[in-house]
Task: inverse folding
């Protein structure tokens, strides 16, 4: 089994989910008391969150590369970044640190392709919805992305940071999300990508009538596929 | 900058318990919105069980020391092993380790000694109950272990249910019955939950006795040690 390097802590609640899914998936596949071999670095999120607010992506990328280097030194065979927003650092890590990164956007694109969808709605932090990381990766895989209106993006972003990241789950916020999703649906979205590891805490498949892509689960399960590839 | 190094995976369920408790304790003491820097190396519990079962102590020592080495290389300033059973070889692992390690056994005995309690019952894996690690660490405390049949029951439930994440009421009752008997026969004044899985099943004190949650005690010591380092580096 390969050693999975995890960059976690952004937020720690979703990191718990990652760790849980990795181990459960390995247990399901190999049986017994088998568990995932992983090396996890849990970062101080406040520091990164401050840099995000300031828009200092250069500093974030430098920090992510430093941590990637640490995990590589520790023996990780490949990395997963337990966050959609920070997945954007993946290409630079691969280039400068020389360790493969199993990208969340790539893994999600492959999953959306399995459903033969051409157009998908993307929800996430403002950075994820407005940046090119998901949009470009999906586009390369033949999937068109649509995102909510600016005002709605603002609302989604603040629910993520002010509620979900702090573990607060509100019914009223769920309704807001459902409304925004049905608007995307009326604009032609055939599926909804929950492009933030916190959103599945609020929105589940049963809340929506079109396929919902929980990027956290897709990412973690496909990481196990990758880790187990050698032993057949 | 200071980094906590943790050997995890024994089992994944209790690793998550540790991770949550570390963050909670840090937030309580520092700030509600920040996290400690933690590196977790999650190792294979299957392999641990095999080495312990075969009493391959040298191999176990080396395997754990290699794990600590991963944490050291990754930049951990100090470390700990998040389970009781592997502490059977703790002293030898510490000798091989380039970083300081906090022992769950030592931290727990220090904690109990402060309470003034003199007689405690010890529950844990068969290996923990029989190895004498707690008995050696707790000089001023008398440690009682369940009888052979009870030990077998506890060990079985730990490995066939609790480590797999299954917590049954019937098993909880079985464990409490053993504790009750030890109160009657041994006059124990407290119980060491000497396996990091046990607090997941026995979540609160019972019979008016303190249940010493070794995970929590360990976490408190780790956070205190971590904050002390940060404080020292500021000066």
Result:
């Amino acid at each position: 089994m390969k050693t999975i390097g995890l960059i976690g802590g952004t937020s720690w609640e979703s990191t718990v989910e990652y760790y849980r899914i990795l181990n459960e998936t390995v247990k399901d596949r190999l049986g017994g008391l088998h568990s995932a071999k992983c090396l996890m670095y849990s970062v101080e999120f406040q520091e990164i969150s401050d840099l995000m607010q300031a828009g200092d992506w250069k500093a974030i990328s430098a920090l992510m590369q430093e941590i990637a280097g640490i995990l590589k030194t520790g023996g990780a065979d490949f990395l997963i970044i337990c966050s959609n927003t920070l997945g954007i650092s993946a290409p630079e890590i691969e280039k400068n640190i020389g360790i493969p990164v199993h990208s969340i956007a790539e893994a999600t694109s492959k999953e959306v392709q399995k459903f033969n969808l051409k157009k998908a709605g993307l929800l996430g932090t403002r950075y994820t919805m407005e940046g090119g990381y998901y949009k470009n990766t999906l586009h390369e895989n033949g999937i068109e992305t649509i995102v909510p209106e600016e005002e709605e993006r603002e609302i989604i972003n603040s629910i993520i940071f002010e509620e979900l990241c702090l573990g607060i789950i509100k019914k009223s916020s769920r309704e807001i999300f459902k409304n925004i999703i049905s608007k995307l649906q009326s604009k032609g979205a055939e599926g909804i990508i929950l492009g933030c590891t916190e959103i599945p805490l609020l929105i589940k498949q049963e809340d929506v009538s079109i396929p919902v892509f929980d990027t956290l689960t897709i990412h973690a399960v496909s990481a196990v596929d990758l880790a187990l590839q050698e032993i057949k | 900058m200071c980094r906590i190094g943790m050997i995890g995976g024994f089992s994944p369920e209790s690793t998550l318990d540790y991770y949550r408790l570390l963050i909670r304790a840090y937030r309580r003491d520092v700030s509600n919105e920040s996290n400690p820097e933690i590196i977790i190396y999650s190792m294979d519990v299957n392999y641990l069980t095999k080495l312990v079962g075969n009493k391959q102590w040298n191999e176990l020592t080396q395997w754990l020391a290699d794990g600590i080495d991963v944490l050291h290389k990754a930049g951990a300033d100090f470390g700990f092993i998040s389970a009781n059973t592997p502490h059977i070889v703790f002293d030898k692992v510490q000798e091989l380790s380039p970083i300081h390690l906090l022992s769950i056994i030592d931290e727990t005995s220090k904690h109990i000694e402060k309470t003034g309690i003199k007689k405690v019952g010890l529950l844990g894996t068969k290996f923990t109950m029989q190895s004498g690690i707690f008995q050696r660490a707790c000089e001023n405390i008398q440690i009682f272990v369940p009888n052979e049949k009870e030990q077998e029951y506890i060990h079985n439930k730990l490995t066939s249910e609790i480590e797999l994440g299954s917590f049954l009421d019937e098993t909880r009752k079985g464990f409490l019955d053993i504790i009750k008997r030890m109160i009657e026969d041994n006059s124990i004044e407290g119980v060491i939950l000497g396996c990091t899985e046990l607090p997941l099943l026995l979540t609160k004190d019972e019979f008016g006795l303190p249940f010493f949650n070794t995970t929590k005690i360990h976490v408190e010591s780790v956070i205190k040690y971590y904050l002390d380092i940060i404080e020292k580096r500021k000066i």
Summary: The longest strand of chain A covers residues 4-8. Chain A touches chain B at residues 9, 12, 15-16, 19-20, 23, 32-46, 70-71, 73-75 (CB under 8 Å). The CA atoms of residues 70 and 145 of chain A lie 35 Å apart.
